[in-house]
């Protein structure tokens, strides 16, 4: 079974995150493994730096940490089996890096329903599926 399950969480779209987290928690409970919840913060384009507060990055990180902490507490898993991590950068690169560094054996991703844009330029979920070194479960 899977002992280390990574779930990237899009805090801006809780419906997608909810179904992926529920599936991951079920897998972790049945396998006796551990869960890592992850959020990736976007980098602010240099052109906008002058228009945001100087502590904007810190505020965003704190909000994300608090949101992930709440999700972890509500997961129904013992605290020792759930961890959280925040990254900064491109979503699929950061998810792949975390999966590798944490030695995840499964990544569970919530996915948007496909649109013309995702067919043309791809999606984060598609890139993770194509390039992950471990199993990936995409939950709709």
Tell me about this structure:
The chain is 45% helix and 21% strand. The chain has 140 residues and is an alpha/beta fold. The protein has a single domain (4-139), classed as 3-Layer(aba) Sandwich (Rossmann fold), CATH 3.40.50.620. It has a 5-stranded parallel beta sheet, sandwiched between helices. Strand 2 (34-41), helix 2 (56-74) and strand 3 form a beta-alpha-beta unit. Helix 3 runs parallel beside helix 5 (124-131). The longest helix is centred in the middle third of the chain and has 19 residues, at 56-74.
Q: Spatial order of the strands in the main sheet?
A: 3-2-1-4-5
Cα-atom Rg, whole angstroms? 15 Å
CATH class membership: Alpha Beta
CATH homologous superfamily placement:
HUPs
Q: What would you call the shape?
A: globular
Runs in which pLDDT lies below 50 for 5 or more consecutive residues are none
State the assembly state of the protein chains.
Answer: single chain
**What is the beta-strand fraction?**
15-25%
The helix/strand series, from N terminus to C terminus, equals: EHEHEHEHHE
Alpha-carbon distance between the termini? 22 Å
């Amino acid at each position: 079974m899977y002992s280390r399950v990574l779930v990237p969480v899009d805090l801006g779209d809780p419906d997608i995150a909810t179904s992926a987290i529920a599936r991951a928690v079920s897998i972790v409970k049945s396998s006796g493994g551990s869960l890592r919840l992850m959020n990736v913060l976007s980098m602010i384009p240099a052109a906008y730096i002058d228009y945001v507060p100087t502590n904007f990055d810190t505020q965003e990180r704190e909000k994300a940490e608090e949101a992930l902490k709440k999700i972890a507490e509500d997961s129904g898993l013992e605290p020792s089996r759930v961890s959280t991590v925040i990254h900064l950068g491109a979503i699929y690169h950061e998810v792949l890096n975390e999966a590798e560094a944490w030695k995840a054996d499964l990544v569970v991703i919530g996915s948007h329903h496909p649109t013309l844009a995702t067919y043309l330029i791809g999606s984060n979920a598609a890139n993770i599926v194509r390039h992950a070194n471990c199993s990936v479960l995409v939950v709709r």
